[in-house]
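Input structure tokens:
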């Protein structure tokens, strides 16, 4: 049999893949049917394909294993309290000075060194990780990819997974993933569901409000990277605070973990790039 010429491989893969990539999916956070160009089972494949590219693009993972374990443990507690507790999640810290946190489809969730430096408690860390976890659980990330990245590029990148194939397509998609922009409605959903997740995980939900207050204050001095992809919903602090006051009457008794965060993160963070 003749080997397929590279130019012929993509169209064949694409036409086969398109059939199962297009369809509807139920958002477990809202219960609504949503039109998606990427099927749920493809989330992991896409996440697995691009996680190493994104990590490289953002300075690599911090090399401190104990710090990574601490971040991942806090993230796993939150993920277990989510609407999709068994989907499989990985939380990691990247060696990048931007103030940011983001997620890939399939449960790859990242926080930057720049963001970790700005936080001061485990409840705050849990808050920002819960916000990102909701973006994965509600498939905001997959939806944003469906809207903002060309189907050809996305599928071409996934189709060449593990083959060392179309590097240019992969690099282009990587840059677009980092710049994916959520809607304000996604943001509000991530805030509200995130609060539920942190409380179920045993964390004080005011930690999440404090993170958003800190980021909004920082953003007045200079643009914070987090808000270039996570637009600020109107009245965010007000609706989060109102929800805590009306729904979680035990909020003040829940875990803050300021000392643990200092010991496990702040005291261990490298001052500059490793
Ligand atoms: Zn967000």
């Amino acid at each position: 049999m003749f080997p397929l010429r590279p130019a012929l491989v993509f169209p064949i893969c694409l036409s086969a893949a398109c059939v199962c990539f297009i369809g509807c999916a139920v958002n477990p956070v809202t219960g609504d049917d949503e039109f998606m160009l990427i099927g749920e089972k493809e989330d992991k494949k896409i996440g697995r394909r691009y996680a190493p590219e994104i990590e490289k693009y953002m300075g690599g993972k911090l090399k401190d294993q104990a710090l990574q374990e601490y971040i991942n443990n806090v993230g796993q507690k939150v993920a277990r309290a989510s609407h999709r507790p068994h989907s499989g999640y990985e939380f990691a810290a990247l060696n990048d000075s931007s103030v940011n946190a983001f997620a890939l489809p399939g449960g790859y969730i990242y926080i930057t060194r720049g963001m970790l430096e700005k936080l001061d408690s485990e409840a705050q860390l849990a808050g920002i990780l819960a916000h990102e976890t909701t973006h994965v659980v509600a498939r905001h990330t997959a939806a944003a990819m469906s809207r903002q990245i060309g189907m050809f590029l996305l599928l071409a990148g996934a189709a060449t997974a593990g083959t060392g194939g179309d590097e240019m397509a992969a690099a282009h998609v990587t840059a677009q993933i980092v710049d994916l922009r959520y809607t304000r409605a996604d943001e509000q959903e991530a805030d509200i569901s995130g609060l539920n997740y942190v409380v179920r995980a045993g964390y004080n939900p005011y930690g999440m409000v404090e993170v958003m207050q800190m980021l909004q204050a920082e953003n007045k001095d200079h643009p914070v990277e987090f808000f270039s992809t996570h637009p600020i919903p109107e009245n965010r602090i007000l609706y989060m605070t109102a929800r805590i006051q009306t729904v979680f009457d035990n909020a003040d008794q829940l875990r803050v973990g300021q000392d643990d965060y200092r010991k496990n993160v702040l005291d261990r963070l490298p001052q500059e790039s490793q």
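DSSP finds 13 helices and five strands in the chain. The two ends are 50 Å apart (CA to CA).
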